[in-house]
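Subject: Sanity check before I submit

Could someone independently write out the structure tokens for this chain? I want to compare against mine line by line before I put it in a report. The sequence has 569 residues.
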Amino acid sequence: MNKVFQLTRVLMKTVYDNVGISSATKQGKKPKRSKTQNQILYGTLFVLIIASLSFPLYLGVRELVTLLVPTGLHPLMWYLIIPMSLIVILVMSIFTIISVFFLSSDNAMLLPLPLKPWQILAARYITTLVMTYIIEIVLLVPIFIGYGVAVQAGVDFYLLSLLALFSLPWLPTSVLGILLSLLMRYVNLAKHKDVFTYVSMFLVLGISMGVSFLFSSTFSAIEVDPAQAAENITAMINQIGYGLTRYLPFTIPGIQSLIHPELGMRILNGLFFFAINGVVVAAFLIGGSPLYLHAIRGTGETASKRKVLNQTQMQAQLRRTPLFRNYIAIEWKLMLRSPIYFSNLILVVILVPIIMIISFAASFSAVGADEDIAQLMEMLHFNMSDPMTFVIGFAVLLFFGSVNMIASTAISRMGKSAEFIKYIPVPVMQQLHAKMYWGFVLSILASLFPLIMIAALGFVPWYDALLLVPPLVMTYLLLNYLGLLIDLRHPRLNWTNEAAAVKSNFNGLFYMLISWVLLAAYIGLGYLASLLSLPGAGYYLAAVITLIMGGASYVLYRLMNKPSILDRI
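---
Independent answer below. Compare away.
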């Protein structure tokens, strides 16, 4: 086991290095911050991000359980929570297992080492579990704490919850590892990883959106008619919870470890649940080792992507076109060719407004009354001359584009070939503008789509909708300059796979954090403007934001328009 833990430490250090140590350190340059300072900085950012996601979930669960406690139905929630948690872990582990187990570039280096197949498999498995536990901390721990606080649970509940959370990911990750290893016996995943990733990605999205729509409509109905909350929850548990436990009977001991009235039985069920998952892991490590060894042999091979051009295509390739247009076309093709880049940089920007609109529609369908919708439309006829109305609408639209990480990872995605941009005979700023172009365009489109919809539905007059466009454009211009500047100053150039360049890159998270801080600042500015009681203050505020963001963008342009901006690459 000593070799397993040593290898696990090396694999975890590789993941950690991709996140927390600047590329300057690895290239022999003296970093501006020490390793300890980096740990504190990224640790603080990580905690803030987790808190921003987990705290609202904790509050929602606590309020829901408090509502159900008088009815005595709150323990039945675990028949829904535990199976659904297992499915969420299963779905969200697909990409992690594919990346860690099969697409890591160090597989070819590990095979010649004096390591047994089960030791390599165990180290990969532990690395995957650590990443899965991070998902649990964000999504599941707030649910358990919220429930415990609402029912005033004792220490035994939290200890058994910890045991359940600790062992919950073991079975789904083991089953996925076996299934993917079997698949690799017949299909070389490395050669067809793009197709496989796209299929998996759209499957995950379909399941996620279906679950989101289901829960959105259910909880909307509860909010509309709180008196029917118990009945709605009971119906949902009967339809979904008991149905899932019928197909996932091994989750029943985990559920009983949390709700059984006797402490002794709760402890026995918790230990039984732990044992079931432990046996599955042992079987996976013993029986899956030969399968995994066979699966990773030859994973360094890649499919040939040579394309034979006909005469028309050749002429199109040779046709003289503007340099900037060629550059942005190349950037677009580079994002499209990789499923990792496409899903994390393009698809997420498209899906965020769509998912929110679906949730909005689900809430309406839960109400189930056309007259209520008509009353709501009449009530939500926004007047953009009011500064608070303006900034809240503006902030909502800005949120849609804040998830865009194209500009903030543009240099990191180039990897070790990033130095190439120093030597080609193209002006520096023209290259940088091409790098941030699609981030700027997609952010605007992500905001324009819901803006056009609310204007078409009559919530906002067209002239007021157009009023939001100039400040949006100037704000996104500044944010994309800032995102690109962050990536220029702290590029992550040493990564082992494409996922690390995006998912393990804190530059994108810094960009989102800056966007949210700016969003909060706009709301504060609107509040101050509302105190002035100035007629048409919303219109003046739009002009002020446009001028300030435009001026700040020009200042950043001047600062970045220097060859020295590439010194960190």
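---
OP: Matches mine. For the report I'm noting this point. Residues 35-296 form one domain.
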